[in-house]
Amino acid sequence: MTTATIAIPDLTETAAHYADRIARVKRRIIICAGTGCVAGGALQVRDAFSEQLRAMGLNVVTRLEGEDAATPDGAIDIYLSKSGCQGFCQMGPLVTIEPEEILYTRVTPDDVAEIIQTTLAGGEVVERLLYRHPRTGEHCKGKDTIPFYQRQTRTVLKECGMLDPEDIAEYVHHGGYEAARRAVCDMQPEEVCALILESGLRGRGGGGFPTGRKWELTRVQPGDEKYVICNGDEGDPGAFMDRSVMEGNPHAVIEGMLIAARAIGAHEGYVYVRMEYPLAVKRLNRAEQAAREYGVLGENIFGSGFNFTLHIMEGAGAFVCGEETALIASIEGKRGMPMPKPPFPAQSGLWGKPTVINNVETLASVPLIVRHGAAQYRARGTEKSPGTKTFALTGHVANTGLIEVPFGATLREIVYEIGGGVTDNSGAVSGEPFKAVQIGGPSGGCLVEEHADLPLDFDSLGSVGAMVGSGGLVVMNNKTCMVSVARFFMQFAQNESCGKCVLCREGTRQMLMLLDEIIAGEADAKTLEILEQTARAVKIGSLCGLGKTAPNPVLSTLRYFRKEYEAHVFEKRCPAGVCKNLCAPVILAEKCIGCGVCARKCPVNAITGEKKQPHTIHQEQCIKCGACIESCRFDAIVQGAIL
Amino acid sequence: MKQTTTRQFEKICEILDRYERKPAKLIPILQAVQAEYRYLPKEALAYVATALGLSPSSVFGVATFYAHFALTPKGKYVVHVCDGTACHVKNSESLLAAIRKKLALKEGKNTTDDLLFTVETVSCLGACGLAPVMVVNEVVHGMMTPAKCDEVLDKILESEATQ
After folding, report:
1. A122 reaches B (C-beta below 8 A)
2. A145 and A29 share a domain?
3. Which of A13, A267, B13, B52 has the fewest CB atoms within 10 Å around its CB?
4. Residue B68 to residue A332, Cβ atoms within 8 A
């Protein structure tokens, strides 16, 4: 919308107007402009399309509104649009050609001329740019034939990757803001709360608290001044679901907040986005401006007398701000340190007023529930965890990216079917099972092969010592050392501990030091015992979620990979061959030409051998400094896992 | 304070006015100050504290709490190597080592003496599908190898040399 404030937005008219414009488009080319594809050069691909198509004398528009570049008969030859993240990040940059719905992968600017000639002019498909089915080797023309997409149920993510995140009219055309209109004009606040409670929606930030109950608790608090906060401080390493939603469909987040505001009686809201997501901040700011100009934010929304203003705030780099009370302190301009609960934010939150604080994905699910009803929402997922969940699938897996599946899906489906199988360190599908899947980031735990058929939901994961968390799924292959993984997460928790409570501040430091001892080969039986004790103490005694969950990776790896810890401690051996101090260098006889460089470099003279004959390392003398490995020009010395 | 500092304070005054001198806006104010100077000069912190009616220690407390704020000047190019889980399991440590070696950064130093580069790790950039990832200022480079890091740095050094 180009005009200033419109008193009452007419959704039907906007949708009809958009439908009229889009009907004139002969062909639409959608370039994925999520962070992943942009890093791969998607914007250059877009520029190449624009330049070359314009040079052919076609009229090319990048926005449906504002530019009046239609041909005399009113037709638009090419609508070159951007979309948010389509999830298939590893195959990016992605280009979709409509109406045929051909999905080209890994497109470079050099491919553009061929696409224009073969597909746009010739009506044929450029086979080499299609995704190839990893098992059958067949070319997949579109999303409906690619296993990565076939097995998913995309609801929250459906419109990410399809619509232009910077075009509010397209969002409205797809039914957007109708749910907000209904909540504001046709429903009472208690009805909205009841509907969300009935849907069974649970908070996607990790805890899984019923959203409807949270809203109802806030609604019944006395007073006019209440707040809605969207927690976009997605700090878990290995998770980027919220980033994709904020970038790809920011209006869904805003609409969800509007509905939440109506439900609890708030007139002001904040979206708190972490600073590592500059594109999300930009898109949200644009969406907020567009929504304000269109009239769905501001005063007297839909002529109902209901007011709601929204602020976008950028974080400043503190993981603990994902904790709700710390996030509130940060919005107030203070150090982001958590407060003891109760009082809960529902009673006393931002500026001491009742506050609802929800995660991005939770809020983006809300418009769908209001639009389609609670029953349809409950039709997916499990009884206690209805609906779908987005996961960021990463690590040693063939198809990394963003996925959405109903609750109750199994790891087998996710890793082997959607993910296309486990990869080795060179990136090739190995056909081997995964060693572990880390779920829920530094607060979560690991799942192992025996959990491959466990239906994933809030409760089942809790029962095996893991948690949904924010939804990061990191697949690890057999070459991963689980002690190192635990150390990695402990280092993270220790860096991010805010320092307020002793158990978290000191406990994470102690656990890190103990893990370092194990990795350095300096541990004994006592180390494991103290590690376990400390972990339990920190879990029980910490103030906030960060500290309470920080020991989880340690406890969970101890539970499922105790033997690996014991090998480190008692045999001074790292079975995966990762921990440098616990791996002896080994000379591969078939590669060694006997040049003698390593023997000369060895500071303790542990290497001997005849000239031009394979050399040997005397392990009892070796100090594992790695000098020989660095010196060998034939890659004949490797870090072995066996002592 | 010399003339340059007076001029600095003018900039800070503009920023303070933009946020209506509200203490609650301390974080966005500090972000804007840092965007201006690439770090938070001590005098600027004291000035902001006085203007907002806060104690210098509480402003300093906020400035040191958040990882984004720097109290020493950063380089013109800030290189972030992602060490999130996905990048970590794909060996992001080797990228960091290669970059530090290339820039001849000694242990404990993150900024080159010519103030051209600052090298830092971040916990997750959310581009896990492209792991391992490196970001230079706001440009994301995905699926990196030590050799590719070298190339990116070489290009920057080249463009700097020609300027």
Report:
1. no
2. yes
3. A13
4. no
CATH number of the structural domain spanning residue A38: 3.40.30.10
**Residues 298-317, chain A, touching B (beta carbon < 8 A):** 313-317
Structural domain includes residue A157: no
Is A43 at the interface with chain B, CB within 8 A?
A: no
Cα dist. A394→A154, A360, A399, A527 in Å?
Answer: 18, 20, 8, 32
pTM here is 0.90
Write out pLDDT tens, residues A33-89: 988 888 888 999 999 999 999 999 888 998 887 655 566 677 889 999 999 988 888
pLDDT value of position A484: 93
| pLDDT of A2 higher than 50 | no
User: What confidence score (pLDDT) does residue A585 get?
Assistant: 84
Q: In chain A, which residues have their Cβ closer than 8 Å to the Cβ of B65?
A: 318, 335-337, 498
A305 lies in the same domain as A191: yes
Option in B25, B86, B139 nearest A333 (CB): B25
Total domain count, chain A:
5
Say whether A333 and B27 touch across the interface (CB within 8 A): yes
Q: How many contacts does A have with B, using Cβ atoms within 8 A? A: 137
Closest chain A residue to the Cα of B130, Cα to Cα: A90
Among A522, A539, A570, the domain boundary falls at A570
Which of the residues B55, B64, B123, B137 would you substitute to probe the A interface, choosing the one with the greatest number of A C-beta atoms within 10 Å? B123
Tokens of A424: 């080795």
Mean pLDDT of A98-111: 94
Q: Do B130 and A89 touch (CB under 8 A)?
A: yes
Domain span including residue A142: 11-149
CA–CA separation, B75 vs A265, rounded Å?
Answer: 47
State the best of A90, A108, A394, A425 to mutate against chain B, taking most chain B CBs within 10 Å.
A394
Q: Are B60 and B99 in contact (CB under 8 A)?
A: no
User: pLDDT at residue A373 above 60?
Assistant: yes
Asked whether residue A468 falls in the same domain as residue A490, the answer is no
| Same domain as A125, residue A49 | yes
Same domain, A19 and A129: yes
Tell me how far CA of residue A16 lies from CA of A22, A99, A159, in angstroms.
Answer: 10, 20, 19
From the candidates A335, A396, A482, which should be mutated to test the interface with B, based on the most B CB atoms within 10 A? A335
User: Range with the lowest mean pLDDT among A582-591, A634-643, B28-37, B77-86?
Assistant: A634-643
Report yes or no on A163 lying in a domain: no
Per-residue pLDDT at B1: 42
The fold of the B77-162 domain, in CATH, is Glutaredoxin (3.40.30)
A315 CB neighbours in chain B (<8 A) are 66, 68
A392 with A277, same domain? Answer: no
pLDDT for A141 beyond 70? yes
Class of domain B3-65: mainly alpha
My answer on whether A447 and A486 are in the same domain is: no
Q: Does A155 reside within a domain?
A: no
- Pick the closest to residue B55 from B28, B17, B19, B26 (CA basis): B26
Which of A89, A335, A337 lies at the smallest CB-CB distance from B129? A89
CATH number of the domain bearing residue A604: 3.30.70.20
User: A200 and A299 share a domain?
Assistant: yes
Mean pLDDT of chain A: 91
Percent of chain A with pLDDT over 70: 97
What's the pLDDT at A442?
A: 85
Q: What is the pLDDT of residue B104?
A: 94
Q: pLDDT at residue A491 above 90?
A: yes
Say if the Cβ atoms of A39 and B122 lie within 8 Å: no
Residue A273 has pLDDT above 50, yes or no: yes
The last residue of a domain, from among A326, A344, A378:
A378
Q: Round to whole Å and give the CA distance between A99 and A439.
A: 38
Distance CA A176, CA A178 (A): 5
Q: Does residue A579 form part of some domain?
A: no
Q: Is the Cβ–Cβ distance between A255 and A290 less than 8 Å?
A: no
Asked if the C-beta of A35 comes within 8 angstroms of chain B's C-beta atoms, the answer is yes
Domains B3-65 and B77-162 share a fold: no
Average pLDDT over residues A8-30: 92
Other Cβ atoms within 10 Å of B37 Cβ, number: 15
Task: Tell me B129's DSSP state.
Answer: G
- Top residue of A32, A35, A37, A279 to mutate, by most chain B CBs within 10 Å, is A35
